[in-house]
Amino acid sequence: MATVAEQLVDLLVQAGVRRLYGVVGDSLNPVTDAVRRHPKIEWVQVRHEEVAAFAAGAEAQITGRLAACAGSCGPGNLHLINGLFDAHRSMAPVVAVAAHIPSEDIGTAYFQETHPDRLFVECSHYSEMVSTPEQMPQVAQIAIQTAIGRSGVSVISLPGDVAGMDVPRRRAEITLVPRPPTVRPGEAELDRFVEIVDEAERVTLFCGSGTAEAHDEVMAFADRVLAPVGHALRGKEWIQYDNPFDVGMSGLLGYGAAYEAMHECDLLILLGTDFPYRPFLPDDVRIVQVDIRPENLGRRSRLDLGISGDVGETLRCLTPRVRRKTDRRFLDRMLRKHADALERVIAAYTTDVERHKPIHPEYAASILDEEAADDAVFTVDTGMCNVWAARYITPNGRRRVIGSFTHGSMANAMPQAIGAQLPERGRQVIAMAGDGGFSMLMGDFLTIVQYGLPVKVVVFNNSSLSMVDLEMLVAGLPPHGTEYPDVDYAAIARAAGAHGVRVEDPKDVRSGLREALDHDGPALVDVVTDPNALSMPPRITGQQLTGFALATSKMVLQGGVGRMVQLARSNLRNIPRP
User: Fold this and answer.
1) Could you give the CA distance from residue 142 to residue 123 in angstroms, rounded to a whole number?
2) Which helix (H) or strand (E) is 451 found in, with range?
3) Cβ pair 151, 181 in contact under 8 A
4) What is the spatial distance between Cα 486 and Cα 472, in angstroms, rounded to a whole number?
5) pLDDT (0 to 100) of residue 327
6) Angstrom distances, CA of residue 80 to CA of 52, 341, 465, 476, 574
7) 15 within a domain of the structure (yes/no)
8) What does the pLDDT look like over 476-501, one tens digit per residue?
9) pLDDT at 379
10) Residue 257 in contact with residue 341, Cβ under 8 Å?
11) What was the pLDDT predicted at 378?
12) Does residue 529 share a domain with residue 429?
């Protein structure tokens, strides 16, 4: 006879799950034992369940397959919640197994009792408890289908005693929809979309993660309507490379002319983005939004037209039907503005960088971009590491850049690197970690060492929570409670059994990074960086400027842009000479 736990594990394997990330516990014992005995799935022992959920979410994003994590009853599965929120908001298909107290004691305030089927409702599309063996196949089927079909999290709450119960002999089979369907807008919506585009004189495209797999379609449409193309942070890896219409990024981490292009057009088309920052969106231009999720339409701004559909399919239907535009003046003006804007800030990482101590983090990020592999996966901590990745990591269609870009959690980079590395040990995976984020979940660096993962952790060590510094300055407050004592993280890495390099002199940045990247195994580079290196958004209000003036009179506020200035210069060659 098979047990409920064995049946669950077998169904997960049928659905493509190859690893179950978690921390063992008595209520979870039937599940971990079932994993131990199954030849096609591996138990990945982490030190903290939050890391398990982050790792599963990263694996799902990198592979496009279902991933899974697990936690024991009460406090064990509660630790999953932050990583599950991130996976869910990143649209990563993940099934979480939340072990539960003995079924007869549910509702009695038993030791470690919580109600996981209720707790995880907000960070999942599906959260249900299995109460009997007969219930398992249906609940597992729905959970798996929901996670894959709706691109998010499903949670199965499973009491430990139920997990150990026998089930009928017959093997449960699962019917899978391997990919969400392609959604095409209706003819009436397409006709109206064509009318709006043809009526416009100045069109701008603003792209998010929904443009994944639609790069060529976006470029073809931009070429037909001569539109500048900007992007949100989650759209950067999909849309910035091979883009002669690129005008950069808008938002709090933005750069270039994306903001101007969005505000000076007469038609803004939002493609696959649920961009959350309303102050960066215009309110006096026509706006069309295309999104696979209809609930996102009009959530952030007033719309003249909302299109529910897949971005690639929608543009394939739309592009041949719109009239080709011939007036390049708006596009060319935005391309020049973009290049000029980038030229003005390159001094931050090109002036005296080999003599500036502490090291400019911009400089370290630009060197990392040059030394990293063309197909590297970058996992990026929230905070200033988001800024350095947004402005210095150059996409090329093969690299991946993932982070907690929607949930905004600290400490995500190293755990996500675990999930990105395990499916493909030969691929270069680099965690860009802040010292605050790294130290928060530092215990799981031991997981990287335990499994011999060749993850490279680059710690931008400025002994502070510098993004919070910036937020306080904007509010007119002096930074408080944001400083850490100096810590040698390279020494900690060496003590843990990994390769550790500490870089304090800018002349050693390239050699230190190269040494770690060439190392065959886990490595950490502790780069001691300037805590005063902050970044300004592309537009700030007078009130924010006043806040800076009240809080400080001397700060490093330039923000470099790395090789993106070269891309902007090359795009200027597309402007016809008079």
Assistant:
1) 16
2) none
3) no
4) 22
5) 97
6) 7, 42, 24, 36, 49
7) yes
8) 777 788 888 999 999 999 999 999 99
9) 98
10) yes
11) 98
12) yes
Helix and strand numbers, DSSP H then E, in the chain: 25, 21
Q: Count CB atoms within 10 A of the CB of residue 302.
A: 11
Residue with tokens 């402007």: 575
What are the tokens at 140? 């597992």
Range of the domain at 463: 353-571
Residues 334 and 360 in one domain: no
Please check whether residues 116 and 60 belong to one and the same domain.
yes
Q: Which residues contact 508 (CB under 8 A, 6 or more apart)?
A: none
Q: What are phi and psi of 157, to 5 degrees?
A: -90, 130
The length of the chain in residues reads 578
C-alpha span between 555 and 473 (Å, rounded): 10
Strands of the 153-159 sheet, one edge to the other: 42-45, 19-22, 67-71, 94-100, 153-159, 126-129
SS3 content of the chain, % helix, strand, coil (to 5): 45, 15, 40
Q: Which residue has the tokens 């499994």?
A: 451
293 & 252 share domain: yes
Please state the φ and ψ torsions of residue 28, each to the nearest 5 degrees. -100, -5
| Rounded CA separation 363/354 (Å) | 9
H-type helices in 346-486, by residue range? 347-350, 361-371, 384-392, 413-421, 435-440, 445-450, 466-474
- Token duo for residue 156: 């199965």
Residue 173 lies in a domain: no
| 130 and 194 housed in the same domain | no
CA distance 49 to 70: 8
Q: pLDDT for 519-573, tens place per residue?
A: 999 999 999 998 877 655 445 555 544 443 433 332 333 345 555 566 566 555 5
Taking the C-alpha atoms of residue 569 and residue 464, their distance in angstroms, rounded to an integer, is 35
Same domain, 76 and 203: no
Query: What's the chain's average pLDDT?
Result: 90
Helix (H) or strand (E) holding 100: strand 94-100
Find tokens 């690893």 and name the residue.
19
Q: Say if residue 486 is in the same domain as residue 541.
A: yes
CA gap 387, 533 in Å, rounded: 11
- Report the pLDDT value the prediction gives residue 562, as an integer from 0 to 100: 56
Helix or strand (DSSP H, E) at 477: none
